[in-house]
Amino acid sequence: MRLKAVLLNCTIKKSPEVSNTQALMDRVIEVLEGLDVACETVRVVDHEVRFGVSSDEGDGDEWPPILEKVLGADILVIGTPIWFGVRSSVCQMVIERLDGTYNNTNDAGQYPLYNTVGGVVVTGNEDGAHDAASNTLFNLSHLGCTIPPNADTYWLGDAGPGPSYIEAGGENHPYTQKTTSWMAHNMVHLARMLKQTPIPAEGNTVPGWQPDDCQGHEDRAPGGHVG
């Protein structure tokens, strides 16, 4: 029962420019692969991903093949740098594009990301790690992902401009090493559990969440995001 993980690097730097976020994501990958998880990384900015909230914005949009990888994974990790104290614009765009999954279901009638385990990697200077992680994990949960304990790892530099994760030797930071290991192991523990016993399709299907007093289909709210 080998698991598969897809890791979306939301750096704003295109390849082959060095990504500090990727460097920390690579530490997560090392642990995952040691637990026999097949890992695939996508640097989103290297692809022509359109802005929008659907699963396919047309006109050369390269999001659909990325989404296909996401939906085929047992574990989804989103990595983001911090800019001006918040997650990157690329990360925000990815969350907005995942909004399109609200319009589909899995074979059990649940949102497509049910039974997918989510986690977050954050790098940056000064502050913003908790904000970026908490917002992104909440978004993943709302999209249907299951979030394990200690589902994030991050590294932060000192206040003001200064060396980033790679230059500062962030891979040697004890706290980041610990949270990287906890995050990877807990994602795998939970993914194995869900692989063996998926979340039952009881009271959580689309459009089965509507109140019982809705009599006809025309009275029911859409199953997707209406905000």
Structural features:
5 helices; 227 residues; alpha/beta; Rossmann fold
Summary?
This protein is α/β, with parallel strands linked by helices and 227 residues long.
- The fraction of residues assigned to DSSP E strands is 15-25%
CATH class, anyone?
Answer: Alpha Beta
Main sheet record: 6 strands, mixed
Ends distance: 38 Å
- Return the domain count: 1
Looking at this structure, what is the CATH superfamily? Answer: Flavodoxin domain
Proportion of residues in helical segments: 25-40%
The CATH architecture name reads: 3-Layer(aba) Sandwich
CATH topology, by name, is: Rossmann fold
Overall geometry: globular
Mean pLDDT: 92
**How many β strands by DSSP?**
6
What is the count of helical runs?
5
Low-confidence stretches: 213-221
Structural class, please?
alpha/beta
Order of helices and strands: EHEHEEHEHEH
Cα radius of gyration in angstroms: 18 Å
